[in-house]
Every structure is written in C-alpha cells, then in structure tokens.
Amino acid sequence: MRTYGLLHKVLRDEAMPVPLAMIRTVDDAEALLTLVETTPLVLREDWFVVSMTWWKRFVTAVEEKDIDKILCVGIIDNSDIMEENTVDKEPLPAANKKFKLRPNLTERGEFVLIPESVMVPLLETYQCDTDARIRRTVVQNFLRPYAHIEVYPTIIKWRTVFNSKVYETKVEPFMTAEEFIDELYESAAHGIAKDIFKLYVDQEGVKKYIVIDENLFANITRDDVIVVEWNPNPASRSLHGAGQRR
Description:
The chain is an alpha+beta fold. The protein contains 7 helices and 11 strands.
C-alpha cells in the first residue's frame, strides 16, 4: 500500500518533468513506468485503479522497447476488476448499467494504482470507457493519519448493548476521531450523557474496552463489532438506544 514517505518528499521537492500529452516514443513509455514508482502521494490529488492484467501487457511491451507493440497494447480494460452495481431494484438497460470495483482486490495483485500524470497520456494513447475509469483520491483520517489512497472505504461495525442488530458507519476522508465519536454517539446513544458512553468488543466472552483513535485496528480486527454501552438504567436510556438513530 502506498504511503507518503521521506523518498516521496525528496522527489516532490525536486523539479517535476513536463507532463506528457500522449505516448509517442519508447522513452515516453519508460518515463511513465518511472512516474508510477516515484510519484509522491499528495492530499486530494487523484489516482486511478487499473487492471493488473492490462498493466502487465503494457509493461511487457515497454520492456521489449518496441514502439509498435507499445502503441498496440489496446484499450485500457478494467472489466476483470469490475462488477455490475446491482443496488437498483429494477434491471437497467445495458447502456445505463453502473459498475463498481470488485471487493477484496489487492494492489499489485489484481490492480495497480496510477497517478493522474500517467493516466492522462495513457487515456490519450489507448482510450478507456468512461464507466471503466476508477478514480480514487489521496486522503487521510484518524485511522491512517498520513497520505494514502483509499481504494475501498473504511467501515466500522457497531451495535448497541441493548440491540443485536449490527450497523456500519463509514470513516469519511479527513475525519478526526472526535468527529467519528460524535457521529457514533448521535446514532447510537443520543440523549445519553457522554461520560457514561463506553465502547468495547466482545472477545471470547470478555469485554475489551477500547478508544477510538489511530490505534483502533491495532487493538481489534476489521471484522470485530464495537458495542456501544452506557448505564442500562431505564431512566437514562435514549429513545434511540435500542437501534440506530435516523
């Protein structure tokens, strides 16, 4: 996974080359390969998810240093890493279908991340269907307080101590721990005094109390369900205590 490190900072401070408009020579293509490996992560800049199947074809052609083969790699094809978004209840005509990234894919396994400075000349050279362009932004949040590309949203599962129904809350880009706690509090325990608002996970029948900070996933797994607990005295229970506040 890409992170913003010292090497990236040094490279960022150096004079950046003039962006390519499209690939015309072997040197152009080789320059794009270098940019993929050396471009630093800068907050709010866009990167793109590209199928490793297509990317390997491109890299192989570049390594052979044959411009004819490079220019004949073919349209950027992400079909093997995408699936139809079936959130719509009614079937859609083929022209109106929406697609999304398949779940649980891995960087450098099924896909590669491409900076916009590389994607622009690739699009000019090879084209790509608009629906197949998978754009992601460089972000940070309290769980990962450094620049990173969030290929999939970060989801935290939770329930209240009075209800077994599990809810999911997305950790938004640039969200602080305090903002997430406020959102969780409003959803789960609105009306309850915050000083009796506690969080724990059940690990083999033992309550492990936790805090929401950058070390959260060092203490629990992403599959753990956080339990929101407070004084069970009926007089202090929220009307929304048995479920998610809408």
